[in-house]
Specification:
497 residues, 3 domains, 0% strand, transmembrane, Endoplasmic reticulum membrane-associated RNA degradation protein isoform X4, ERMARD, membrane
């Protein structure tokens, strides 16, 4: 930052705010501290190892805006001189950010953009909340206004922050994704803490921030400026993408991603290879009464759940044999339902933790089933299985036929509760504890399935008993109508049964 102060901008303009001698002092102080540290390490024979650099995660989910073209950069260069979002005295920093982007110095560009986004948002924050004094730098009795306060739900005095209402949910979701959520890139924190290798900073992250900055600047540029550019195809696309943005790093999105990934894994079960002629085995297993009881419970629970489906979702008539592609259509459709993520209450986040654990365990079960089935089939075909192992393989095939609809049911229950997740706020303390206890019983079931379906244990008969017990608990709780789908406003959608 000091280097930018010295080498860019109008000197007479910058001197009003920041004297060059202060910049020089900071540079010399930094270099001096480095020399002192090096001298100390040599004297003490201590090696100071830099902690490993962090690799930014989930970037593939965060790539919403397309690559920045020179046409878009030209528009930004014009808009930033006319937007109320950009302080005139800060224009040198904005221009330098564009210079850094064009020269492929993406970390430098991002650092400059983050400081200017914070400056612009601080100005809007102070105006919309009628607290002009918060534009000042830190005083002995007042902390500096940073992103933490700017993006919060409440002000320090407990009143509602008006900035989110002005910016809108999509813009707030974007800022929280890139800056705050634990499963997001947290660009500000990681760049300021030196956790990222600046030379390898991803261009994709800078593109997202630059495109968002353009849209935000246009929002505060006035109708005359907006009308000049909003019909241009490239700008129109950016505005549309920004207005349709929803969180990619919130636990809600991560749960949806887990459910769809698990469904994709389970979808291949019917395609797994089977023994050429298992009927010749003397130990062939027949369907038993408990399996029939499980299938009956699954059908009854599905019937109860389908009455609470959101609008525009329907199912086929035969619940006893729901096609694989229908499960995919059903779950993906439900996962496309918008669930508000901004400022989620603590109880919502607690429920999300349990639901994510359930879907994670289902994914592990599916992965183990696929791996075990493929391994045993190869061993069967190669006649490498002993008699007891052949019997166990047949038990596995028998259990898979039950686990296939059972896991789909768990995923459906998970995503239906997710769609109605905010209804949990209406539960009383005792009801909430009972609901958590119910969810944790399902989690316990999936954890036991992970254990029993592992290649170390191979307890396939026991999975039927486990499933029957879990289904009874689900049916009992469904009958009490204490799930979130029961508390939410009843849907008017017509479900084909």
């Amino acid at each position: 930052m000091a280097w930018v102060c010295i080498t860019s901008g109008n000197p007479s303009e910058m001197a009003v705010v920041f004297s060059l001698r202060y910049c020089a002092t900071m540079l010399l102080l930094t270099a001096g501290l480095g020399q002192l540290l090096e001298s100390y390490l040599q004297q003490t024979k201590v090696t100071l190892a830099h902690r490993p650099f962090v690799t930014l995660t989930n970037l593939e989910d965060l790539i919403v805006f397309p690559d920045i073209t020179y046409e878009v950069l030209a528009v930004l260069e014009q808009v930033m001189t006319k937007s109320a979002f950009v302080l005139k005295i800060m224009l040198p920093y904005w221009r330098m950010a564009l210079v850094k982007f064009k020269s492929h110095r993406f970390a430098d560009c991002t650092i400059l953009l983050l400081t200017q986004l914070e400056t612009g948002l601080r100005r809007v924050f102070a105006a919309v909340n009628k607290c002009a004094h918060r534009l000042l730098t830190a005083e002995s009795t007042t902390l500096y206004t940073t992103f933490d306060e700017i993006l919060a739900k409440h002000l320090n005095d407990g009143t509602i922050n008006q900035l989110p209402l002005l910016l809108g949910e999509p813009a707030m979701d974007f800022l929280w994704d890139f800056l705050n959520y634990q499963e997001g890139p947290r660009l500000r924190d990681r760049l300021s803490h030196g956790e990222i290798n600046l030379g390898e900073f991803p261009k994709e992250a800078t593109i997202q921030l630059l495109a968002f900055s353009l849209v935000l600047s246009l929002q505060f540029a006035g109708e005359d400026v907006l009308s000049m550019f909003k019909e241009e195809a490239a700008i129109k696309l950016l505005i549309s993408l920004a207005e349709g943005y929803s969180s990619r790093c919130h636990p809600v999105f991560q749960l949806k991603k887990q459910v769809l990934s698990c469904e994709e894994s389970i979808r291949i079960w019917p395609l797994l290879p089977l023994p050429a002629d298992p009927g010749q085995e003397p130990g062939r297993l027949e369907d038993n009464a408990k399996t029939h009881a499980c299938n009956s419970l699954i059908t009854r629970i599905l019937c109860a759940l389908f009455h609470h489906m959101p609008e525009n979702h329907s199912v086929v008539k035969d619940l006893d044999d729901l096609p694989t592609e229908q499960w995919h259509h059903l779950l993906s459709g439900l996962c496309s339902t918008h669930v508000p993520t901004l400022f989620c209450p603590r109880v919502v986040l607690e429920v999300l933790v349990v639901l994510r654990s359930i879907s994670s365990q289902c994914q592990r079960v599916s992965s183990q089933v696929v791996a075990s089935s493929q391994l045993r089939h190869r061993q069967w075909a190669g006649r490498k299985l002993r008699s007891r192992q052949r019997q166990n393989y047949l038990r596995m095939l028998h259990s898979i036929r039950l686990l296939f609809p059972a896991l789909h049911l768990i995923l459906l229950l998970t995503v239906l509760e997710l769609v109605h997740i905010h209804a949990v706020c209406g539960k009383k303390a005792y009801e909430y504890q009972q609901y958590l206890k119910f969810l944790k019983s399902i989690l316990q079931y999936t954890e036991n399935l992970v254990s029993y379906t592992s290649q170390e244990k191979n307890k396939w008969n026991e999975t039927v008993d486990l499933t029957h017990t879990a289904l009874l608990k689900i049916w009992t709780f469904t009958e009490k109508k204490q799930m979130l789908i029961h508390l939410a406003k009843k849907s008017t959608s017509k479900v084909v049964l």
